[in-house]
Known about the structure:
This protein is of the alpha+beta class. It folds into 2 domains: 1-62 and 120-199 and 325-454, FAD/NAD(P)-binding domain (3-Layer(bba) Sandwich); 206-317. 29% of the residues lie in helices and 21% in strands. It has helices spanning 33-44, 91-102, 121-135, 182-186, 213-220, 228-239, 281-305, 337-341, 401-407, 410-430, 439-448, and strands at 20-29, 49-52, 69-70, 109-111, 114-118, 138-140, 144-151, 154-162, 165-176, 191-193, 206-209, 251-254, 261-264, 313-317, 327-329, 349-353, 357-359, 366-368, 375-378, 390-392. The chain is globular, with a radius of gyration of 21 Å. The structure holds flavin-adenine dinucleotide. The site of flavin-adenine dinucleotide (FAD) has 40 residues, from helix 1, strand 3, strand 7 and helix 10.
Amino acid sequence: MISGxxxxxxxxxxxxxxxxxxxxxxxxxxxxxAGVSAASNLARKGHDVLLIERYGFCGGGAVAGMSGxxxxxxxxxxxxxxxxxxxxxxxxxxxxxxxxxxxxxxxPQKYGKTWTVTHDPLMWREAADGFLRDSGVSxxxxxxxxxxxxxxxxxxxxxxxxxxxFARIESRLVIDASGDxxxxxxxxxxxxxxxxxxxxxxxxxxRIGGVDIDKYKSxxxxxxISPQHVVDALVAAEANGDFHLPRKxxxxxxxxxxxxxxxNATRIMGFDGRDLDVTNPLDHSEAELASRLQIxxxxxxxxxxxxGCEKSxxxxxxxxxxxxxxxxxxxVRRLSNSDVIERKKYSDGVVRCPWPIELHAGDKPxxxxxxxxxxxxxxxxxxxxxxxxxxxxxxxxxxxxxALASARVTAQCFGYxxxxxxxxxxxxxxxIPLRAIKGEEVRDLLNKEGxxxx
Length: 454
Ligand SMILES: Cc1cc2nc3c(=O)[nH]c(=O)nc-3n(C[C@H](O)[C@H](O)[C@H](O)COP(=O)(O)OP(=O)(O)OC[C@H]3O[C@@H](n4cnc5c(N)ncnc54)[C@H](O)[C@@H]3O)c2cc1C
């Protein structure tokens, strides 16, 4: 078991000499939506689970990146204009319900042809703490996975770095919920990045307070996507040189707090206009610097040009720039763009997704609706082509560029975590490899646990 904090750093480290922090049935790397779901669902089944998270709280892109809403719960439709129809359940629904009971969630808000709900980022952290505590997950915050224990192609645990130095932790299975497929990457196994290395733009999200919401809404309207007159105002403000606004189609959501809005507007690129790859720390640093400059431009525009925002001020921004896309693993199967567009369903589909392709590139993000339907994500997109005792959960699943622009949102990440937990449980209980698990069986069990996939 984990004890003490005085193990020493070794640099350069000899893996065999590293202090051991113990052994677990399963290590979950990363406490975003996928990791919280994976860890809680597995520990509920009685397994000894350790969740490792580099920050001091869970939430990842949803909280540190302040993405702010739970997308992917509801159908898109031209006809159901005034009714949000929920089609995704399971752990996503359990989390949604708990947040709602805590007062940390809004009612559904219109987002183009679909709906979404905004969450309070502090309550998101508290809800995650509650799920992990209730299910008995062991937690290591402020610890970063920096290496993998491996015998040939079999993962045997991870190496972490913390303020106390490097240490090793053994496990029978690892769930890589790092968002960036860090574990798969550190094993040296293949992954891809966007289309030919070009990934979706990051966004620094921020919240503004002091807004006269009624006045704002009578100008902006009910849809959280900027109406044409706001797009025109953004174009004019940039053309006049009043503000630097590289994105002209923006999203703004009401929050669960009075007089407050959540602003998803910035489009972060390098200072020389290049697309950034935030797995490179130099690009990542530039993204943070550019973000803080850009949120002031958008906040200034809102204050000067949007009725109701005259007295607004920035409450806070994400702890880090929001990262939509980095590595996607090369999985046993790849979710293709056509799978999404054709709304494919599979007997081994373990997660449903009704969310549109929401591709952030260029000055106006492209949104392609999947009207009145959803597609399914097969189990095998979570299983790396190479490597044993490892599975991924979350936005690093195996998917083509546009497909990922749909499949990456929070409700689905909760679902990937739940599916990975069910598969890991089957693997441990029957002593069979994760890649030999039948997606159909995972689906059946998810249904028994409330996923309502059939
Ligand atoms: C700007 C932006 C806006 C978005 N808007 C929405 C929205 O409105 N609604 C919506 O549903 N989705 C939205 N998304 C998408 C959604 O937020 C993410 O895709 C989702 O949160 C990903 O969840 P995840 O668990 O796969 O990964 P992440 O949330 O990235 O979680 C990974 C976790 O792993 C930790 N970690 C990473 N590496 C290591 C390591 N080596 N060691 C230890 N810990 C590690 C991280 O700190 C993090 O907590 C948005 C994303 C962005 C960037």
